């Protein structure tokens, strides 16, 4: 399975705007991505440090991605290495899987997923506005504005097998513009799941919803009997 080696930085909203303006004159490509994350309600995949998503890009291309940990490496200074398998699928099939009409485990490569026999569900979405710019012949900058559950955050990513060299180049290049690059070891999936857990903890349980529905609307205390 191919290995994704990625250097990631967190950006403030101010630095995101400044970086985008600086690169805009040099030619930026724009992509709109919607990521649909899958796991069990008890987050078995997260416990196994695995990630599974369907990404729809520009509303017409769908790709299923499975990420698994590389045991010999640990995230450090914004650099992370993970096994990554990408599997393009038809858009109509992707939408049916997202809606829960077809289980995602029908796809052949999902046998690689830990506990793939469990009921994997779509937990929600994270949307990304991505601007892409070539840094050199081997490296591409990805400037992301991400949103989920009402929060927004900004990132700069670049895939590289030379994180120290590229990291130094980026800090020198953008430091002159007053742009602060903060190394981040936190993935988009980790941010999504943190918000998902917060939202899930505030939702009433199915039993509480059923009890509320069976009780019906309450009458005011001083209202007369019918």
Give structural notes.
By secondary structure, the protein is an alpha+beta fold. It has a single domain, classed as Beta Barrel (Hypothetical Protein Pfu-838710-001), CATH 2.40.320. 27% of the residues lie in helices and 36% in strands. It has 6 helices and 9 strands, in the order βαβαβββαβββαβαα. It has an 8-stranded antiparallel β-barrel with strand order 1-5-4-3-2-6-7-8. The longest helix has 15 residues. The protein is globular.
Main β-sheet description? 8 strands, antiparallel, barrel
Per DSSP, the total helix count is 6
- Please report the distance between the alpha carbons of the first and last residues: 70 Å
Radius of gyration: 21 Å
Oligomer: single chain
Shape: globular
CATH superfamily: Hypothetical Protein Pfu-838710-001
Content of β-strand: 35-45%
Which spans have pLDDT < 50 for at least 5 consecutive residues? 210-226
Mean of residue pLDDT? 86
Number of strands: 9
What is the CATH architecture annotation?
Beta Barrel
Q: Helicity level, as a percent range?
A: 25-40%
Which fold name is given in CATH as the topology? Hypothetical Protein Pfu-838710-001
Number of domains: 1
> Would you state the CATH class?
Mainly Beta
Structural class: alpha+beta
Helix-strand topology string: EHEHEEEHEEEHEHH
| Spatial sequence of strands, sheet with the most strands | 1-5-4-3-2-6-7-8
